[in-house]
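Reopening this ticket.

The earlier resolution said the output was attached, but the attachment link was broken on my side. Pasting everything inline this time so it's all in one place.
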Amino acid sequence: PASVLAKREHPEKWYQQRWCDANRGQVEVVLPDGTRCDCVTDTHAIEFDFGNNWAEAVGQSAYYSLQTDKKPGIVLILETMKDRKNWIRLNS
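Inline output:
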């Protein structure tokens, strides 16, 4: 796992903080069951994940949506042009 993280341009939290700040959201919101939603805005419960984890992001955002009664959202972090295939998969 450490070698995978070393390849990342920035850690996930770096993207979370910047996006959430720019969209007036709250980072790492603890939900009633103790799980943490990456970012909660007035309208959305947002999951952040790297491109290769697109499928997991779908499930997590759906779960956070149920827990917060907000729309699910995903910020998919694409670091290279090769990651575009994951964006296509997510949107399919």
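Reporter confirms the inline version is readable. The helical segments are 2-6, 12-22, 54-68, 84-91. DSSP finds four helices and four strands in the chain.
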